[in-house]
Amino acid sequence: MTSLDRTRTGTESSAAQYYPWLPVLSTLAVLATVLVLAFTGNTAAAVAVAAAGAAAGGIHITVHIRR
Predict the structure, then answer these.
(1) First-to-last C-alpha distance (Å) of the chain
(2) Cα 30 to Cα 7: distance, rounded to the nearest angstrom
(3) CA distances from 26 to 21, 45, 52, 56, 67 (A)
(4) I need a surface site. Which of 20, 23, 49, 63 has the fewest CB within 10 A?
(5) What is the 3-state secondary structure (H, E, C) of 6-64?
(6) Which residues, including other chains, have CB under 8 Å from residue 27's CB and lie 6 or more apart?
(7) Confidence (pLDDT) at 52
């Protein structure tokens, strides 16, 4: 009889474990940089970093519908 268990066997790579956190960490890094630049009076640099962060990233939502 075949097994219906779809649990992965073996170990996952370390990059695969931390991949979901990569966008979160990069967003926090851009936000912290923008805040530091804004509070130190470098508004033009803060706007440039915010624009680069928005262009490089973004929100990507994937919905999987099971029936």
Answers:
(1) 25
(2) 36
(3) 9, 18, 12, 10, 35
(4) 63
(5) CCCCCCCCHHHHHHHHHHHHHHHHHHHHHHHHHHCCCHHHHHHHHHHHHHHCCCCCCCC
(6) 53, 57
(7) 84
Structure tokens at 47: 């706007």
Contacts 24+ apart (CB under 8 A), 2-7: none
Q: Is the pTM of this model over 0.85?
A: no
Residue with token string 């804004």: 38
27-63 burial, b at 16+ Cβ within 10 Å, e below that, comes to eeebeebbeebeeeeeeeebeebbeebeeeeeeeeee
The 10s digit of each residue's pLDDT in 10-64 is: 555 665 666 777 777 888 888 899 999 999 999 899 999 888 887 776 656 577 7
